[in-house]
Design brief:
This protein has 283 residues and is of the alpha/beta class. It contains 10 helices and 8 strands. The strands form 2 sheets. It has a 5-stranded mixed sheet with strand order 4-5-6-7-8. A 3-stranded parallel sheet has the order 1-2-3. Strand 4 and strand 5 form a beta hairpin. The structure holds adenosine monophosphate (AMP) and manganese (II) ion (MN) (3 copies).
Length: 283
């Protein structure tokens, strides 16, 4: 076991979380987190607030983001940790990545209207703390608010996913670009929750191989998005591909997330923790 309560994956109102960076810092510290990162989707606009909030509660912090990538016909998430928060390369890359979200949201709303759900664009926008980052999560909250679904998990079973009303395929960043933006900004790239993508063994092998080829160095093993069987699977993948291992709750909201900040099993002790390679970047 690697006994550090590191939580290197969560979201604030800057993307699709419901808490502010300040509220997250306090919650993380109260929950016993010893090293924290805020990893908003396609956005680093909350990083300075998170740095200040973490410092105010005496919580060591690594800069973070979670980049949306298109790979093998699916959306894959690449987390970046420990980069320079003032990097223009990363800032511009993320701005381009999130650029199509508004148009996509309007098309999602058109599809929902076609099945009788009106006003979804405006309704989702009301839930978005950052309109540039309007996401499926905000649509999910609107569908719960209006009583169409009981909770956000039901939303993703009935809507917004491939083959269901409200799913609009989208072209995100390339794997190569996402890794390059992170690495050239001084950070480490991490494959987020690989167990979630539903890839075949061949597709998964391609993802890990290409990721490494482009300079990626780490993979999430212990995450709120994995089952305990997947901790074992991806611990083995980390060894096989000689990747550093990361740990993070993927916390979004006290009302929606099963895994709270810091409330995760330890990283297995035979893995190399990603944070050992990032000690020089801790704020
Ligand atoms: P987007 O970036 O707009 O495609 O939205 C993706 C976000 O939707 C993810 O980061 C999750 O927060 C949320 N999400 C996606 N699939 C699910 C699911 N099956 N259950 C709950 N939340 C989900
Ligand atoms: Mn999310
Ligand atoms: Mn993700
Ligand atoms: Mn996430």
């Amino acid at each position: 076991m690697s006994i550090l309560n590191a939580d290197l994956h969560c979201h604030s109102v800057i993307s699709d979380g419901t808490l502010t960076p300040e509220e997250l810092a306090v919650r993380a510290q109260k929950n016993g987190v010893e090293l924290w990162s805020l990893t908003d989707h396609d956005e680093i606009g909350g990083q300075q607030r998170a740095i200040a909030a973490a410092r105010a509660v005496g919580l060591p912090f690594l800069t973070g983001t979670e980049i949306s990538v298109s790979f093998a016909g699916k959306t894959v998430h690449i987390v970046g940790l420990g980069f320079d928060p003032d990097s223009d390369l990363l800032r511009q890359g993320l701005a381009n990545t999130r650029g199509g979200r508004d148009q996509r949201a309007q098309e999602m709303a058109d599809q929902l209207a076609a099945v009788g759900i009106r006003g979804a664009y405006e309704g989702a926008l009301k839930h978005a703390g950052n309109p540039d980052l309007i996401s499926r999560t905000h649509f999910a909250r609107f569908l719960v608010e209006t009583g169409v679904c009981h909770d956000t998990h039901e939303v993703f079973r009935r809507f917004l996913t491939e083959g269901k009303p409200g799913f609009v395929p989208h072209r995100w960043a390339s794997l190569k670009d996402a890794v390059r933006w992170i690495v050239q900004s001084g950070g480490i790239a991490v494959i987020a929750h690989p167990g979630r993508y539903g890839f075949t063994a061949n597709e998964e092998f391609a993802l890990f191989s290409e990721f490494k080829h482009h300079g990626g160095q780490a993979v999430e093993v212990v995450t709120g998005s994995h089952t305990s069987a997947e901790y074992v699977t991806y611990a083995e993948m980390a060894i096989e591909f000689d990747l550093l291992a990361s740990r993070g709750s993927d916390f979004h909201s006290p009302d929606e997330s099963h895994t709270d900040l810091g409330a995760l099993p330890w990283l297995p002790g035979h893995l190399k923790p990603v944070w050992d390679a990032l000690l020089h970047s801790v704020h």
